[in-house]
């Protein structure tokens, strides 16, 4: 997909970003790309656009971009840490990348909360998801924005879960994820 600077000016940053993301989602669902390729494609658009997160969330698009930005960066740095851990080389970078990834995960959760506050928690449903990973079982929850396309968040942050419960949008129990094949594929 063309993600050149000229395209941003013609189409707009959000339209370009979300078209690229939707294209990657379709490719992943069709089995044309792996989860790792999906993540690398998302990282590439964020890197090329060179658009930092927004400080003020006054639109759905800004909130969704912030969530995606932090999610992409978290997964990128976490995957770098995993690669280093698997090679047993340069272990000091493992901790550095892992910490960086964890920080981006925290920012991702804060970005999701900012977006939920912007939409006043309307049309939001959250629940624990069934996971193949034992370490994520009973920890990973899904937040779905029912009125928006492809607006599904994941977290395991206890403080975020508490807020979802306080707001009355968390459904106790466990459900399959709406994107089960994605969350249960390793990268």
If you average the pLDDT, what whole number results? 87
Helical residues, percent:
55-70%
If you compute it from the alpha carbons, what radius of gyration comes out, rounded to the nearest whole angstrom?
Answer: 17 Å
Uncertain runs:
1-10
Give the overall shape, derived from the CA principal axes: globular
Counting DSSP H or I runs of 4 or more residues, the number of helices is: 7
Order of helices and strands: HHHHHEEEHEH
Q: Assess the beta-strand content as a share of residues.
A: 5-15%
Q: Find the count of extended strands (DSSP E, 2+ residues).
A: 4
Instruction: Please outline the major beta sheet.
Output: 4 strands, mixed
Q: Structural class of the secondary elements?
A: alpha+beta
Strand adjacency order, main sheet: 3-2-1-4
First-residue to last-residue Cα separation: 22 Å
Key descriptive features of the protein:
187 residues; alpha+beta; four-stranded mixed beta sheet; 7 helices; 4 strands
Short description:
The protein has 187 residues and is an alpha+beta fold.
Describe the secondary-structure layout.
Layout: H1 5-11, H2 13-29, H3 35-49, H4 60-87, H5 91-118, E1 124-129, E2 141-145, E3 152-155, H6 158-166, E4 170-175, H7 180-183
Parallel strand pairs: 1-4
Antiparallel strand pairs: 1-2, 2-3
Helix pairs in contact: 1-2, 2-3, 3-4, 4-5
């Amino acid at each position: 997909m063309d993600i050149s600077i000229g395209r941003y000016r013609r189409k707009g940053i959000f339209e370009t970003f979300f078209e690229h993301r939707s294209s990657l989602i379709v490719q992943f669902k069709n089995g044309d790309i792996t989860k790792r390729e999906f993540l690398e494609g998302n990282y590439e658009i964020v890197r090329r656009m060179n658009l930092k997160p927004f400080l003020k969330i006054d639109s759905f698009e800004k909130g969704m971009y912030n969530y995606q930005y932090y999610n992409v960066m978290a997964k990128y740095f976490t995957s770098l840490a995993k690669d280093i851990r698997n090679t047993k080389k340069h272990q000091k970078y493992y901790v550095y990348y892992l910490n960086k990834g964890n920080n981006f995960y925290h920012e991702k959760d804060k970005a999701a909360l900012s977006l939920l506050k912007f939409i006043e928690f309307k049309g939001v449903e959250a629940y624990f998801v069934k996971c193949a990973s034992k370490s994520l079982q009973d920890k990973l929850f899904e937040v779905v924005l029912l009125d928006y396309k492809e607006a599904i968040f994941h977290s395991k942050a206890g403080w975020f879960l508490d807020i979802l419960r306080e707001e009355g949008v968390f459904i106790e129990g466990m459900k399959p994820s709406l994107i089960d094949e994605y969350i249960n594929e390793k990268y």
